[in-house]
Design goal:
Distance between the termini: 81 Å
Number of strands: 0
CATH class of the domain at 12-172: Mainly Alpha
Largest sheet: none
Radius of gyration: 29 Å
Number of helices: 6
Strand content: under 5%
């Protein structure tokens, strides 16, 4: 029978472990839909198969997490994961910014998917270690099963990228949407007074870096001092404040 290392009130580590479980549970629940979308947008059969197979694995991973929650005597309650949501957003961005049916899209989908895999590998590895520390050996075994699947999925994507997809994408012409604009008439060359003032201050710092005191106890005001970087709203340098310090006799 599994027991916690310490009896009584849960430790901070115990609560942290549970929160991580809830966050990765949220990730896996939503990843199923993300992988389905990636499968639909991929162009090669092998990549489609890789996404589909991992989606099926993800269903099993969800079941393992639910078993861990059950063993702990708590409900399987997902908690929003900020980090994974950011990676999901990158995946949607990849789809929006690449051409349908292109090798470029397949290569970008692999990168987006591997970012998710690496996040999961780090999370499941850490969760397994925490589970062992807290005395949840059965949970650790389940987490390590999932960890092995994540590593295998990541390796599969690397193989697909290196074997064909990246090479094809490297010789594929960019679409018109990807090319930089040829009309540069809207680009202004007018200088910004504030930027010019800051540049002048930085140049002055270089020029005055080796300045020495003009006389004992009174230092010269280097043209690149912090005061030179202060500018008014219109970009003109602010007047330097007079020092109230007295020079030593």
């Amino acid at each position: 029978m599994e027991t916690q290392v310490e009896k009584g009130a849960p430790s901070g580590l115990e609560l942290f472990y549970q929160t991580l479980l809830q966050e990765i549970y949220w990730c896996e629940l939503h990843l199923r839909d993300v992988l389905e979308s990636m499968e639909e947008r991929a162009s090669t059969d092998e990549l489609k198969t890789a996404f589909r197979n991992h989606r099926e694995e993800t269903n099993n991973q969800v079941s393992r997490l639910e078993k861990i929650f059950y063993k702990k005597g708590v409900g399987a309650q997902p908690v929003f994961c900020v980090g994974m949501q950011g990676l999901f957003d990158e995946g949607w961005q990849v789809i929006d910014e690449t051409e349908e049916g292109s090798a470029h899209r397949d290569a970008a989908l692999i990168v987006a998917a591997q970012k998710v895999e690496h996040y999961e590998i780090a999370t499941y590895g850490s969760l397994s270690t925490l589970a062992k520390t807290l005395g949840y050996q059965e949970a650790a075994d389940l987490l390590e099963q999932t960890l092995a699947e994540e590593k295998k999925a990541d390796a599969t994507l690397t193989t697909l990228a290196e074997r064909d997809i990246n090479t094809e994408a490297s010789i594929e012409p960019a679409s018109e949407e990807q090319l930089p604009p040829t009309d540069t008439s809207s680009i202004t060359t007018e200088s910004d007074p504030a930027v010019d003032a800051m540049k002048a201050g930085i140049d002055g710092m270089d020029a005055g870096a080796s300045s020495k005191p003009t006389h004992e106890g009174a230092e010269a005001s280097a043209p690149g001092s912090a005061d030179a970087l202060l500018v008014n709203d219109d970009g003109t340098p602010k007047a330097k404040k007079r020092s109230t310090r007295k020079a030593k006799a």
